């Protein structure tokens, strides 16, 4: 099947940092001479002591050791703030858009960012936080989240952000796991018109932590919260007294910058560790190239700082580049489904970066919400987090982008620090649903899953590994280097194993097919569950679908579909038949769904990822052992799915 392609306009390509020829040239150079390429890119960052070594990496199982720029020293907050002050002290660094459109937005200049970051750094120091200490952030999408991240980097402390939607139990596990000294939180977190009692949740978590853990509380709503004088520090009172200067600590390039917990296919979430020099070089370069960021552009990434996307593309990448970055506290549908587009219009956003799940949700609400906003400032659109189905891609392209904005479908992971595969807006003709091309320095290899043999050529599919290292790569799992090696370097020796499957099409472009544990095998045919899902959601009556395999006597695995209908649609036996026929015609008879269950909702993490592990268990009629469900956004959804399961 050939896919339509969408080339950037000649005008956009001519103004872009990278056009097609430049991409080829730079990519070839980055693979042929990684040391030379990354030595040059290292210069985008200000070093205190310049590095002499560039790359020093071993992928040998049992001795995995990743070092970049190892003998250089630097400070990340100085790179994100101080070095811009002389030329752009009065330029807006952060545009903060609150949850409610009735509350005023804030424009925070680089000078103000400097002063507030230093205040926060001094408060933390006074609380006893020093170089190498861990600080957990459990905080809403408010400017203080950025101040806190940058304040940690300023004094050499290691931050670990826990998404404000996580439960007290999850917070406690992360505080204890990193032996944090301080938790930074807020009184309440307004989101979608509702206030989450963050301080109360943090208090609950801290009951399960050492008495020595202190908490620094930012006033967001100003409402009364329980207070413990022995443990709680009032940020607003202390910051008002604190000095607006604080000398940046000199950090080694390989000193840890942050820890970010992420879930894998097994066990408890692991603490992904990123270090200082390589991460900031990579975040800066990818932000500039992937989004074709130019001086004066307004960049908006809708992620939460609780996820890696927020780290790299709300805070570190944009600020390292002296950009203006939008930070949004709210949700796409509050007060209504036009909120994203109103914010784009209001702040004249040039690059807009969001997740397919948000695009699908908004698509389901109809085009009027988009059309009533003036989106003429938009130049580049981006997606991240999961494969995007062509339906949603086309809607994003046509309705949001008006057919004029290249879409960058960025594939990467918490572990990778920044984009590994993505089209570059001025260089590549995109295809709906394809992550297209490797970023500079990234050498993808497609492997035979069972044997680990490299599959050469185009028109092939397999397990996606990366041959060599890149500066933004994670360095270890916090406190468990063995787990790091086992998870990423043991299945396919000598490569970084991504956990994803991928297809390299006839043109050599890459398509992520989903986690390899989501691949199902029906009568000997390998099939991406994403493929079936994409077909299902292409049906006009389907809002969302999740597909898993389940044991089938004859076929090996059968196809089990959870389908959420568009509001107002009736779940009938007839519609079931219609969908089955639909999928057969969209993909082929081998993809014909065996079981279709009507799902009023799908179990998702609070970041919007469908928890397939749970869906597989229910499909296997093995719901007695659902495993860890603590990260579910709406636990009640699961009870309904079990009650109405099809495979009894
Ligand atoms: C950045 C982020 C990583 C996993 C990854 C893959 C999926 C992310 C994707 C994508 C298809 C894309 N994923 N981006 N799949 N196309 N553009 O999301 O990090 O939360 O660690 O998730 O998300 O399966 O392995 P993280």
From TrEMBL:
It comes from Cognatishimia coralii. Signal peptide: none annotated. Its EC number is 6.2.1.1. This is Acetyl-coenzyme A synthetase. CDD domains: ACS (cd05966). Acetylated. Deacetylation by the SIR2-homolog deacetylase activates the enzyme. Gene3D superfamilies: 3.30.300.30, N-terminal domain of ligase-like (3.40.50.12780). Residues 23-80 form the Acetyl-coenzyme A synthetase N-terminal domain. CoA binds at residues 191-194, 309, 523, 584. Mg(2+) binds at residues 537, 539, 542.
């Amino acid at each position: 099947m050939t896919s339509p392609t969408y080339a950037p306009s000649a005008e956009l390509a001519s103004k872009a940092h990278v056009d097609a020829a430049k991409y080829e040239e730079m990519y070839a150079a980055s693979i042929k001479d990684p040391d030379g390429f990354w030595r040059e890119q290292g210069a985008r960052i200000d070093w205190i002591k310049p590095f002499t070594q560039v790359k020093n990496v071993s992928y040998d199982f049992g001795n995995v050791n990743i070092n970049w720029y190892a003998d250089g020293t630097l400070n990340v907050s100085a790179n994100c703030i101080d070095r811009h002050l002389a030329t752009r002290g009065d330029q807006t660094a952060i545009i903060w858009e609150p949850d409610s459109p009735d509350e005023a937005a804030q424009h925070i200049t680089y000078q103000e960012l400097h002063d507030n970051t230093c205040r926060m750094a001094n408060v933390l120091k006074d609380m006893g936080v020093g170089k190498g200490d861990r600080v957990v952030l459990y905080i809403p999408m408010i400017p203080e989240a950025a101040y806190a991240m940058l304040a940690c980097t300023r004094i050499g402390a290691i931050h670990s952000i826990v998404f404000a939607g996580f439960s007290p139990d999850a917070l406690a596990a992360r505080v204890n796991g990193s032996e944090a000294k301080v938790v930074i939180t807020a009184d309440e977190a307004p989101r979608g018109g509702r206030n989450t009692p963050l301080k109360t949740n943090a208090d609950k978590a801290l009951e399960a932590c050492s008495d020595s853990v202190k908490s620094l509380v930012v006033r967001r709503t100003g409402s009364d919260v329980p207070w413990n004088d022995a443990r709680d520090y009032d940020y607003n009172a202390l910051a008002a007294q604190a000095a607006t200067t604080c000398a940046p600590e000199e950090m080694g390039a390989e000193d840890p910058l942050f820890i970010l917990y992420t879930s894998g296919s097994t066990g408890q979430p692991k603490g992904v560790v990123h270090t200082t020099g390589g991460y900031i070089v990579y975040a800066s370069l990818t932000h500039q190239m992937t989004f074709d960021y130019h001086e004066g552009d307004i960049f908006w990434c809708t992620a939460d700082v609780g996820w890696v996307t927020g780290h790299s593309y709300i805070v570190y990448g944009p600020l390292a580049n002296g950009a203006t970055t939008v930070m949004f506290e709210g949700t796409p549908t509050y007060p209504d489904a036009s909120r994203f587009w109103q914010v784009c219009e209001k702040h004249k956003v040039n690059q807009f970066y969001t997740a397919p799940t948000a695009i699908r949700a908004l698509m389901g609400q109809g085009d009027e919400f988009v059309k009533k906003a003036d989106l003429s400032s938009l130049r580049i659109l981006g997606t991240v987090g999961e494969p995007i189905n062509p339906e949603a891609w086309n809607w994003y392209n046509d309705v949001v982008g008006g057919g004029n904005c290249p879409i960058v479908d960025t594939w990467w992971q918490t572990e990778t620090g920044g984009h590994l595969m993505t089209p570059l807006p001025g260089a590549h003709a995109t295809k709906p649903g394809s992550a297209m091309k490797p970023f500079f320095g990234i050498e993808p290899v497609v492997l035979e899953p069972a044997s680990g043999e490299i599959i050469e050529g185009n028109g092939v599919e397999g397990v996606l590994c990366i041959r060599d290292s890149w500066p933004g790569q994670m360095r270890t799992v916090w406190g468990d280097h063995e787990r790091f090696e086992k998870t990423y370097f043991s299945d396919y020796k000598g490569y970084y194993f991504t956990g994803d499957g991928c297809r390299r099409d006839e043109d050599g472009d890459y398509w992520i097919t989903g986690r390899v544990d989501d691949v199902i095998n029906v009568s000997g045919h390998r099939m991406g569950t994403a493929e079936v899902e994409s077909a299902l959601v292409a049906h006009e009556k389907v809002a969302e679908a999740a597909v898993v395999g389940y044991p089938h006597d004859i076929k090996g695995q059968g196809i089990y579909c959870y389908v959420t209908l568009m509001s107002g649609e009736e779940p009938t036996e007839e519609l079931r038949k219609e969908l089955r026929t639909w999928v057969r015609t969209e993909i082929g008879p081998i993809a014909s769904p065996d079981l279709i269950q009507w799902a009023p909702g799908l179990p998702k993490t609070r970041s919007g990822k469908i928890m397939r592990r749970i869906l597989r268990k229910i499909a296997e009629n093995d719901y007695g052992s659902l495993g860890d469900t603590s990260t579910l956004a709406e636990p009640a959804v699961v009870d309904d799915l079990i009650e109405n399961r099809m495979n009894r």
